[in-house]
Amino acid sequence: MINKCLFPVAGYGTRFLPATKAMPKEILPIVNKPLVQYGVEEASAAGIREFGFVTGRGKRAIEDHFDISYELEHQIAGTGKEEQLNSINELINNHTFAFTRQNEMKGLGHAILTGRNLIGDNAFAVVLADDFCVTEEGDDGVLGQMVQLYRQFRCSIVAIEEVPRDEAHKYGVIAGEPMKDGLYRITDMVEKPAADKAPSNLAIIGRYILTPDIFDILENTPPGKGGEIQITDALLEQARKGCVLAYQFRGRRFDCGSIDGFVEATNYVYQHVYRK
User: Fold this and answer.
1) Core vs surface per residue 249-276: b (16+ CB within 10 A) or e
2) Among 37, 35, 36, 44, which residue's Cα sits nearest to residue 3?
3) Which helix or strand (DSSP H or E) is residue 132 part of?
4) Which CATH superfamily is domain 4-274 in?
């Protein structure tokens, strides 16, 4: 039922300068695989087969990564290096990829609205590749867990996790009515609140399932925090009109938009995945 996933990847990645001066931050490798590929693989494991990317200037490497490289494959044909392309070629051969550009950086809400032509009138997932998520072996990925919930509730869902109060200013933060363990019906959402203004310590991370009416709401959402169109403002309006759920996922998130989180994720993958 969720067949499409949108990746907003137009940001500049300024926290990783100078590495990101000419290379998209989403192509930075966690060991030997680009960050964005992990996100696509998580969505694929959730049953999604169509991917849309909202890109910007200087992001061509993302398009090239999800395309055949005939010259490279010719050069390594018949060598042991061929198998190192198996994971990306499996994605290319079994999924579709489409791209559109966000000409101005006006916030996550604007980026999602820019991807409307790639989604159409469908419920869809959104993955922020900066948030690298892992789960226990044998458990569904974070997006897979959310797809299961969508099948039951048929409404927008955001992934949340507990954060220290003094870090609430980095996130969208929710307040909600508990429905069952780890699941809340949202009653309020605040984008990057001060610690003493945060409605809880439950912060939204970069996994969403959105129903298509979110596009019309975004079109009528005025600029909010930082002068940007905030997806949290649109989701709060959607929650007031109907229902939006917040899900405290099983698993662990690494904030790969920060240097510390990126290094932690790299060490984790090297120790728990790459060396196996």
Assistant:
1) bebebbbbbeeebbebbbebbeeeeeee
2) 44
3) strand 131-134
4) Spore Coat Polysaccharide Biosynthesis Protein SpsA; Chain A (3.90.550.10)
For the stretch 203-236, pLDDT in tens is: 999 999 999 999 999 999 998 888 889 999 999 9
144 closest CA partner among 87, 209, 214, 52: 209
The dihedrals phi and psi of 232, each to the nearest 5 degrees, come to -65, -40
The dihedral region occupied by 157, where left means phi > 0, alpha psi between -120 and 50, and beta the remainder, is: beta
Distances (CA, A) of 118 to 79, 167, 172: 38, 34, 25
* All structural domains of the chain with their residue ranges: 4-274
End-to-end Cα, the chain, rounded Å: 34
**pLDDT (tens digit per residue) in 87-114:** 999 999 999 999 999 988 889 999 999 9
Q: 3-class secondary structure for 50-80?
A: EEEEEECCCCHHHHHHCCCCHHHHHHHCCCH
- Cβ of 166: how many Cβ atoms within 10 Å? 11
